[in-house]
Amino acid sequence: MRRRRAQVAEGQRYRRIGVGLGIWEVIAIQTDGVGKMHARLRREDDPSSVKTLAVSVLLDPRQFEPLPE
């Protein structure tokens, strides 16, 4: 049986799990040389704070939770 994978798209917002770890918006989706998908994120309260994470990290409920649109 195949597991259904959630999708990550530009404009989606995620909250980092834990105290004071911020809300992040997906600003780009990229695929690396071996086919792994990565999301480029910008912190809402500090737009100069940008990072890239594997999409699998964003979809891990122990690390991030999606916010309603």
Report on this structure:
The protein is mostly beta strands and 69 residues long. The chain has one domain. 6% of the residues lie in helices and 46% in strands. It is built from 1 helix and 5 strands; from the N terminus they run ββββαβ. It has one helix at residues 55-58, and strands at 13-16, 23-31, 37-43, 46-54, 64-66. It has a 5-stranded antiparallel beta sheet. The chain is globular. It starts with 12 loop residues before the first strand and ends with a strand. It comes from Rhodocista pekingensis. This is Transposase.
Keywords, separated by commas or semicolons:
69 residues; 1 helix; mainly beta; five-stranded antiparallel beta sheet; 6% helix
Task: Give a quick rundown of the structure.
This is Transposase. The chain is mainly beta.
Topology (SSEs and partners):
Elements (H helix, E strand, L loop, with lengths): L12 E4 L6 E9 L5 E7 L2 E9 H4 L5 E3 L3
Antiparallel strand pairs: 1-2, 1-5, 2-3, 3-4
